[in-house]
Amino acid sequence: MFKVVALLAEFMADSNGQSVKANVLVCLREYGQDIYRFLQQYGWLETSLKPQLVGDLLAVPFNSSRAESHVLNEVRSSFDFEITIDCIELEKSEDSVNPHARLSRTVEEWLSSYQDLKVRSLLSNLPKKWELLGDLVLLPETAFESDAWGEFFERLSQFETLQFWQEVAQSLGGERLGRQHQIAKDKLRTSRTELLLGQSGWVEFLDHGIHFGFDTTKVMFSSGNVTERRRIGHIDMQGEVVVDAYAGVGYYTLQMAIRSKAKHVHACEINPDSIAGLMWACKANNIQQNITIHEGDNQLSLPQLYNQADRCHMGLLPSSEAVWNHAVRCLKPSGGWLHIHMNVHKDDIEQWQESTLQTLEKYALEISREWTLTATHLERVKWFSPHVWHVVLDVKCREVDATLVV
Q1: Which residues contact 134 (CB under 8 A, 6 or more apart)?
Q2: Which among 150, 225, 307, 310 could bridge 240 via Cys, Cβ 3.0 to 4.6 Å?
Q3: 187 plus 322 within the same structural domain
Q4: Within-domain flag for 203
Q5: Which domain range does residue 149 map to?
Q6: What residues of the chain score a pLDDT lower than 70?
Q7: Are the beta carbons of 9 and 55 closer than 8 angstroms?
Q8: Quick one: which of 267, 270, 248, 297 has its CA closest to 188?
Q9: Which of 65, 93, 121 finishes a domain?
Q10: What are the DSSP calls for 278-298, one per residue?
């Protein structure tokens, strides 16, 4: 990383003057996406400026909402690759392609009519992230929800409120607008999305070339898992029978059936609204023959799939442990693969991995399967909360070769 200063100085010398000084985190290019997503998730990404690629290094700008030392310490405690901090000239993002700038400009125009309101505080409290599903923009649950925003909306008529939401949606590239709320703590993990603009929460869109469709007011879809959907779709599953214990609307089911080319996927799901979305997607992608949907509680459906699978996927958060025993039994006696999703504190990941293998080995021995279990990969998908990672552990289960046993 010693060459950072020289490379950045060279870039600054070539700058065309359309730039400003900014604090940046610098890392090797291959780790840039991880740093970008980390800053974005915590609202620390400076979206008005462009990240700069310099040789094999990437400089990612962060805003001044937190002290430089705090940001650097948080990032370094979360990643095991080298990261440095610097202050360099970066080019400005064009307003026309910067949704944060468009949103700020739209809201500022509305607030200009109410000079007695605390305009500055309201503008600084705009959402830093959102999801765009088809033409529906989903805001986080805290967006436009403070007491100060309440005072602003009290001054608007019903028509003006709808007009405000319409302009907010359009500034973010959508036609409809919703606000997410925490998933209901029920067995179905029901969505509680609130529609602010539009008559229906149904969305249709492409993700990695795959058609998805579902009602956002009834089921949830985590766009933040995009890297894991990409990864799972790159795994070669040709000729395999796969069990997806928590299929949802097909987040991973469809990736495995279409991009990974699994021979057949058994999709277990309890939520009727998720099943409706999955059935729609199977038809839209013309893969009805490759997916069997098992409706209802997977504690009842998984035992029907014992000894059939080459691979089992368990994509439930915060923990998928309730089906680990079933998943082991679903694999063929010769073994196979397990993909285990879990929320784990960053300091406990190594210990959790070891204890997970021990638990799986115990379940295998209970049914007289003397397998060799190997953790081949641990994927850090995204930050679920401060210091807690959403991880996926890939485990290979193999029969012990009797000829090698002394």
Answers
A1: 203, 204, 205
A2: 310
A3: no
A4: no
A5: 97-197
A6: 1-18, 40-43, 64-67, 78, 94-97, 115-117, 119-120, 183-191, 224, 401-406
A7: no
A8: 270
A9: 93
A10: HHHHHHHTT-GGGEEEEES-H
